[in-house]
Amino acid sequence: MAIPVIDFSKLSGEERAKTMAEIANGCEEWGFFQLVNHGISEELLERVKKVCSECYKMEREENFKNSTPVKLLKEIAEKKNGNNVENVDWEDVLTLLDNSQWPSQTPGFKETMAEYRAELKKLAIKVMEVMEENLGLPKGFIKKAFDGEEDSAFFGTKVSHYPPCPQPELVNGLRAHTDAGGVILLFQDDKVGGLQILKEGQWIDVQPVPNAIVINTGDQVEVLSNGRYKSVWHRVLATPDGNRRSVASFYNPSLKATISPAPQLVENLKQEVDRTYPKFVFADYMSVYAEQKFLPKEPRFQAVRAM
Ligand SMILES: O=C(O)CCC(=O)C(=O)O
């Protein structure tokens, strides 16, 4: 079993219908798929790899050596009591938002990452349009829902490194979770694997495909699609060698947006009354998620319904 790899360029040719169906299958059956020929130039992707790796080396590696996961792993390993390191991830995280402070010492980092984010945002919108068409929703429906009445959708980028771990059996690279938000576009390492999804009770590798963009859907797309597109559990394993790099971009609702199943996808009034998915303000969902990220999503939907 392997995550579907889909040629996005075929959307504009004779194979459009087949490609639309492949993306529908990726969303309905997998919750994850990989896009190749997605229109982001190889030249830009090569620069992203270079500046992110250089930034880690120049501005972050030293701090990781003194970080909480490194200290906790050392303590647990010395005790040899059979326990694992809980509540932390073997991951270095750098978050890029339009208005956050960006690393400044790595040549070309800001320019390259700003260009990359602009391209990825456009790709996210194209992917959402395909989802809308497959779901029978009007063009722009998801974007409009995520913008809310008086704001615009959130777009954040998380640059992660998962450095080599001396005892990968004792700690996770990133603990299993489903994503809180909308559509996630991940540019993962070409060589060092570790990302896995849970499918039918089995953990499956998201196989590295050079220069592909991995797409997955979060809890808010599950709600909007009234459960047609389920967010899927995924995790990153720590590995003994190789420093895995990943760049994840999150197209999420604005905190003020109200999210509920699209009325077109709620089949009848009875279903509307017994809704599995509540209607809520995304900021409320995020306050629950902050406490429950690594737990099942269903109680999150219940908690936010009660708010
Ligand atoms: O680093 C990865 O490959 C996955 C990251 C991820 O799942 C997340 O940040 O939510």
Indicate how many domains the architecture comprises.
1
Helix content: 25-40%
Instruction: Outline the biggest β-sheet.
Output: 7 strands, mixed
Name the helix and strand elements from N-terminus to C-terminus, one letter apiece: EHEHHEHHEEEEEEHEEEHEHH
Mean of pLDDT: 94
Question: How many helical elements?
Answer: 9
CATH names the topology as Jelly Rolls
**Strand tally, please?**
13
Give the CATH class.
Mainly Beta
CATH-scheme architecture:
Sandwich
Low-pLDDT ranges: none
Bound molecules: 2-oxoglutaric acid
Q: Describe it for me?
A:
The chain is α+β, with helices and mostly antiparallel strands. It has one domain (5-262): B-lactam Antibiotic, Isopenicillin N Synthase, Chain (Jelly Rolls, Sandwich), CATH 2.60.120. Helix content is 37%, strand content 21%. It has helices at residues 16-30, 42-65, 68-79, 109-135, 141-147, 219-224, 269-273, 282-292, 298-305, and strands spanning 5-7, 32-36, 92-96, 154-162, 172-177, 183-188, 195-199, 202-205, 213-217, 234-237, 244-252, 258-259, 280-281. The strands form three sheets. The chain has a seven-stranded mixed beta sheet with strand order 1-2-9-6-11-4-3. Helix 1 links the parallel strand 1 and strand 2. Helix 1 packs across helix 4 (109-135), helix 2 packs across helix 4 (109-135) and helix 8 (282-292) packs across helix 9. The protein is globular. The termini are far apart. 38% of the residues are buried. The model has no long low-confidence stretch (mean pLDDT 94). Bound molecules: 2-oxoglutaric acid. The site of 2-oxoglutaric acid has 11 residues, from strand 4, strand 6, strand 10 and strand 11. Belongs to the iron/ascorbate-dependent oxidoreductase family. Keywords: Ethylene biosynthesis, Iron, Metal-binding, Oxidoreductase, Vitamin C. It catalyses: 1-aminocyclopropane-1-carboxylate + L-ascorbate + O2 = ethene + L-dehydroascorbate + hydrogen cyanide + CO2 + 2 H2O. Residues 149-253 form the Fe2OG dioxygenase domain. Pfam families: 2OG-FeII_Oxy (PF03171), DIOX_N (PF14226).
